[in-house]
Amino acid sequence: MTSRLERLSRLQERLEYRFRNTGLLEEALTHSSYAHEHGLANWNERLEFLGDAVLEVGVSRFLYESYPQLAEGELTRYRSSVVCKNALIRWAEHMQLRDFLCLGKGMEACGERHSVFADASEAVIGSVFVDGGYEAAEALVYRYLLFQAGERNTDLSLDPKSALQRYVQEKTPGGLNYTVTSVTGPSHAPFFTVIVELEHCVIGEGSGASRQEAEFDAAKNAMADLMASESAVCVQGER
Fold first, then answer.
1. What CATH number is associated with residue 93?
2. CB 53: neighbour CB atoms within 10 A?
3. 52 among known catalytic residues
4. Catalytic: which of 26, 48, 52, 119?
5. 122 catalytic per annotation
């Protein structure tokens, strides 16, 4: 029979982080229901509180540095879509946290989409922060983002048109089409307006001093709207 320490070692391999104090990881994986049943003094809610903040800061820093062209509202929508409950649950499933989480008897049969798994994800991030400092936690957040990007079939580091293409290509067989709708201004300083369509529906509009700049702006706006819609679904799922 596999020991608890051996199983925790496997989880650390998945996390790509080796704990100095495995007790922190144990605490991150202990739900209050289990702690109360077994007379334990600590459970994962405090680490969850900390991990929530660390995740938000790590994602915010990545988006701030990767998207210098985006305004605050757009950055907020991007961040919301990858730190919401549903995104955290997807990562928990990927990391197979259910196999390691200590739950009380009344919680053992909870469904795969239960918020307890999102909470455990944040607690694990918090435990890495306490054990290894911000750099270790930020590295884990970056791997978390890579996973979320893979799930969404996009890469936040790509140019807006490439990112939008990657984002939609598995959601629909239709392609993207960019159309110049107007060119204004003098011939030496034209100003382009472009729309981007998906399956004959306009999903974004942009403008710029060149056609390429306007297409990038349209793709960026379309991507922000699509991610905002996904974020709204996340929020509704939490209610």
1. 1.10.1520.10
2. 13
3. yes
4. 52
5. yes
